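User: Predict structure, ligand adenosine-5'-triphosphate.
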Amino acid sequence: METLVKKILDLQESTNRMNSVIESLDTGLMMVDYHGYIKLVNRAFGSMFDLPVEQMVGEHYDVYLSAYNLRPLLNECMESNIPVRLEIPLFYPQERIIEASLTPIEENSQQFGIVAIFRDLTAFRRLEELRRDFVANVSHELKTPLTSIVGFTETLLDGARKDPDTCKEFLQIIYKEGLRLQRLVSDLLDLSKIESKQVSIKMEVVSVQLVVHDVVETLIEQMQAKNLRLLTDVAPLMVKMDTDCVRQILVNLLANAMNYTPVGGKVTVKVKQDDRHWMLQVMDTGIGIPERDQPRIFERFYRVDKARSRNSGGTGLGLAIVKHLVELHHGEIEVESTVGKGSIFTVRFPLEYSDT
Ligand SMILES: Nc1ncnc2c1ncn2[C@@H]1O[C@H](COP(=O)(O)OP(=O)(O)OP(=O)(O)O)[C@@H](O)[C@H]1O
Ligand SMILES: [Mg+2]
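Assistant: Predicted complex:
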C-alpha cells in the first residue's frame, strides 16, 4: 500500500514538474487528440495568438482557431498524418511571424493526435531584413560615385583631355567623387568598428570647455565662409569622458547644424549639468526636420532630402555614428525640431560612468 501511495506521489510530482516546464517555455505548445480536442496548451501559445488558454483544454480546436490559418494546417496534418511546417504572419495583437511545426504522434502504434510547436521568428526575420537593406544601401551609395568616376575617365580617354579646361573640370569631378568614396568607406569602417565594440572607451577627467573650444576652432572658418554665427554657452565643467568620442559626436552635430542652416543663420553649442547628467546641446536656426522623419534620422543612410544631403557631400551615416558613440558612452540623444525654424540636438551623458 505504502509503495503505491509513493508511486502516485512520485507520478504527481513528475507531472507537476513537467507542467511547470511547459508553462515556462517561450515556445507555444498545443496538443490535440485524434478527434481534434485540445489536450494541452501553454501560456506562450495563449499570448502569441491572444487566446484564453484556461478555457481551451477539452474544446475542439475549431472553436478557437478559426481566426488564424491554423485550422487548415491542423486539418492537413490530421488527414495526411505527416509533419507540416509553415510560417504564419500575424497582424493581431502585434505584427509577427510565427513558425508552426505540426507533428502527428502515435500511441501504441495508433494515431493519437498532433503536437504543434510555435516559435516567434519576428526578431530573426527583422535582422535579416536589416542586413539585406544595409547591403543594398551600401551598394547603391558606392555605385553613384563610381559610375561618375568611370564615365568621366572614359570621356577623358576618348579625347576630352585635349581641351585643358574640360580636362581640369572633369578631373575635379573625379577627385570630388573619389573623396566621397573615401569618406563613405571610412564612415562605414568607423560604424562597423563601433558596432562590433572594437573601440574601447578611455575615460579621463577633462574640461568640457577645452574640448568644445578645440572642435569649434576647426570649424570656425567654414562657418564664417557661410556667414553663420557660432555662439557657445559652455559651463566650466570637469567631467569624465572619452575625449575622442565626445569630439566626434560634436563634430558631426556641428557639421549638420552648419550644412542644414541657410546663410546668415545661427548655431549654438550649450553645455550644462543637472544632478546626474551633463548635457551637450547643438542648436541651429536651420531648415528643421519634419516630425515624421525625426525618429528615423539616426538610421544608417536615412536622409530627409537625399539630393540636398548628397550635394553637401553627406553619406547619411553621421547621425548613425553619433548614436552609437553616445550609447557607447552610456548616454542618450534626442532631437527637437520645427521645419523652417531650426533643430536642437541634446546629448545626455551620465556624470558617473560605470563599465557595467
Ligand atoms: N541640424 C539639422 N537640421 C536639419 N536636418 C538635419 C540636421 N541634422 C540632420 N538632419 C537630417 O538628418 C539626415 C541624417 O543626418 P546624418 O548626419 O546622419 O547624414 P548626412 O548629414 O546626410 O550625411 P553625413 O553626416 O554622413 O555626411 C540628414 O540628411 C538631414 O536630412
Ligand atoms: Mg551629417
